Amino acid sequence: MPVLEVDGVKLPQSMSIARFLAKQFNLAGKDNLEQAKVDTVVDTMIDAMDKLGPIRRQADEAKKQADMQQFLADVLPKHLQNLEILANTYSNDGPFFVGNDLTWCDLFVYDMLETILQIDDSVLSQYSWLQRNRQEVEKQPNIAAYLQNRLKTPF
């Protein structure tokens, strides 16, 4: 279990840690409404990943393959479409999900899609806004440096 210790206080739970750090580093949104929009995007991505989790843990390889095909063909597209709708609603026509600034939801969606793209590298072919968002995230200087130097780990 991930734990972050701050001033002697231990904070468990990865999403609580992510929200705390986002606020610490001004990536949570500029006000309460933006923060709610950011949380909406994150929760939408979590909904998709919650469907993927049991498939990844499936012991029966034939069932796992069939379930993965259904996820990629039927389940995931609905969530990706929902993310594009949220982006069109919240982004002010910019490349980031909320407002005109990078927030932690951009980083979270980038990371989760990285996992899915390892399964099928064409899943974003019909989602131009999500492709643009990934490109903009990758252009951030610290992100670009990290991506250039990180170790590739298998899914």
From TrEMBL:
Q: What is this protein called?
A: glutathione transferase
Q: Where are the transmembrane segments?
A: none
Catalytic activity, as annotated: RX + glutathione = an S-substituted glutathione + a halide anion + H(+)
Kindly give the PANTHER family that the UniProt entry links to this protein.
GLUTATHIONE S-TRANSFERASE, HEMATOPOIETIC PROSTAGLANDIN D SYNTHASE
GST C-terminal domain: from which residue to which, for each copy?
A: 31-155
Alphabetic keyword roster: Transferase
Q: Name one GO biological process term.
A: glutathione metabolic process
* Its EC number(s): 2.5.1.18
Q: Where is the organism placed in the taxonomic lineage, from the top?
A: Eukaryota, Metazoa, Spiralia, Gnathifera, Rotifera
Transferase among the record's keywords? Answer: yes
Record bears the keyword Transferase: yes
Annotated ranges, domain GST N-terminal: 1-29
Tell me which domain of life the UniProt entry assigns to the organism this sequence originates from: Eukaryota
Matches recorded under Pfam families: GST_C_3 (PF14497)
Q: Which InterPro entries match?
A: Glutathione-S-Trfase_C-like, Glutathione-S-Trfase_C_sf, Glutathione_S-Trfase, Glutathione_S-Trfase_N, GST_C, GST_superfamily
Q: Supply the PROSITE patterns for this chain.
A: GST_CTER (PS50405), GST_NTER (PS50404)
Q: Which is one GO molecular function term here?
A: glutathione transferase activity
